Amino acid sequence: MADTPVISPLDQARILSEALPHMQRYDEETIVIKYGGHAMGAEDSAKAFAQDIVLLEQTAVNPVVVHGGGPQIASMLKRLGIKSEFAAGLRITDAATIEIVEMVLAGSINKQLVGYINEAGGKAVGLCGKDGNMVSATKATRTMIDPDSRIEEVIDLGFVGEPEKVDLTLLNQLIGHELIPVLAPLATSATGQTFNVNADTFAGAVAGALRAKRLLLLTDVPGVLDQNKKLIPELSIKDARKLIADGTISGGMIPKVETCIYALEQGVEGVVILDGKVPHAVLLELFTNQGTGTLIHK
Fold first, then answer.
1. Stretch 121-136: mean pLDDT, rounded?
2. pLDDT tens column, 202-226
3. Contact status, residue 102 vs residue 129, Cβ threshold 8 Å
4. Concatenated DSSP letters for the chain?
5. Cβ contacts of residue 124 below 8 Å, gap of 6+?
6. What are the tens digits of pLDDT across the range 228-286?
7. Neighbours of 285 (CB within 10 A)
């Protein structure tokens, strides 16, 4: 492994000075950061992410972290011998699976991330959408074309929900008070049923309700790619819809971009899809001229 390059104190001071305009831009603003299950990676990567979140809070930015946990859920289901299937890109969540999903998301992953942020000097508060009725949801439905009959069929996804309403009462007690909310993407129905919510969708709903300055979707790809597999640094909503229509944006990137469009229409100023495996990706995006990933705006 190569040695870390030595940076002189003068260069360190210059770097900090160049970050000033970016810090001023996000001063007292809310930034929602979706930290994906695949982007979490190893412990050292998660701890580095936690340090960056604490740095944001120390520079008067109000970070709100939403985390996923797909790989960790899959691992636990496998250990317990519970089979899990996917349809239309979402995990079919039966009664046995929702118990594991809640245990992994609101339990182990959430508290681990809270611990890393607190270890780095922050004051993280671990919550899920059920706390304070923060996020209420309705049952999600999807349709798929049967490959044999070519007939469109409704897929029962079980306890998978779509955000219906975000109540900011609890978040407003935390944001701006040196506390960092860390949210697991679980929600509750009007009848008290727990729903598993796609983390991107959950983050988009929360960011929209907060009218966040930025929503950052940390994932395992560089951003939106063109037909030559090159990164597209910036897109308008109109551009994004064209790329979905012509097939340039396809597969799992479609729901991510649709989440971006929804958040923008709810009042978020800009949404960035970026590679969470890049060291200090959040700081690169917010505090440098270089940026990273794909910025989607109105």
1. 97
2. 999 999 999 999 999 998 889 999 9
3. no
4. -PPPPP--HHHHHHHHHHHHHHHHHTTT-EEEEEE-HHHH-SHHHHHHHHHHHHHHHHTT-EEEEEE--HHHHHHHHHHTT----EETTEE-B-HHHHHHHHIIIIIIIHHHHHHHHHHTT--EEEEETTGGG-EEEEEEEEEEE-TTT--EEEEEEEEEEEEEEE--HHHHHHTTTT-EEEEESEEE-TTS-EEE--HHHHHHHHHHHHT-SEEEEEESSSS-B-TTS-B--EEEHHHHHHHHHTTSS-TTHHHHHHHHHHHHHTT-SEEEEEETTSTTHHHHHHHSSS--SEEEE-
5. 65, 113, 114, 117, 118, 179, 180, 181, 182
6. 999 999 999 999 999 999 999 988 898 899 999 999 999 999 999 999 888 899 999 99
7. 22
**Single-letter amino acid, residue 119:** E
